[in-house]
C-alpha cells in the first residue's frame, strides 16, 4: 500500500525531548475502520500504544488522537493519520514534524 505524501499542509516544530498531540478527525462513516499513525521515516503504520507513543481511537467523537513524547532529532519527518477503508489506506491528515535541539 502506497501513501502519497507529495503535498504538505502542516509543519510543526518541537524542541528535543518535547511532546506533541495530534487530533485526527475522520468521517463518522469510518468509525468501524482501523486507524493508523504512519511514520514515513521507518515506513511503519502503528495503531497500538508504545513507549513514547499513544494512539487512541474515540469513535463516538470520530477522533483518533496521537501523542508522541520525548521527541528526538531522529524523529524529524513526515507523519500521517491513515484510515484503512476496505484495504485501501486513506490519509486523512498529514504533517511534517521538525525536532530542534
UniProtKB/TrEMBL annotation:
Keywords: Membrane, Transmembrane. Its main location: membrane. Residues 14-92 form the Ig-like domain. It is found in: Membrane. One of its GO terms (cellular component) is membrane. Transmembrane segments: none annotated. SUPFAM superfamilies: Immunoglobulin. Gene3D superfamilies: Immunoglobulins (2.60.40.10). Coiled coil: none annotated. It holds the Pfam family V-set. This is Ig-like domain-containing protein. It comes from Cirrhinus mrigala.
Amino acid at each position: 500500500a502506497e501513501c502519497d505524501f507529495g503535498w504538505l499542509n502542516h509543519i510543526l516544530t518541537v524542541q528535543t525531548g518535547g511532546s506533541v498531540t495530534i487530533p485526527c478527525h475522520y468521517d463518522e462513516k469510518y468509525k468501524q475502520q482501523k486507524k493508523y499513525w504512519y511514520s514515513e521515516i521507518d515506513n511503519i503504520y502503528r495503531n497500538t500504544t508504545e513507549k513514547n507513543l499513544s494512539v487512541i481511537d474515540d469513535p463516538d467523537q470520530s477522533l483518533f488522537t496521537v501523542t508522541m513524547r520525548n521527541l528526538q532529532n531522529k524523529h524529524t519527518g513526515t507523519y500521517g493519520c491513515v484510515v484503512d477503508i476496505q484495504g485501501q489506506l486513506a490519509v486523512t491528515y498529514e504533517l511534517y514534524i521538525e525536532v530542534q535541539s
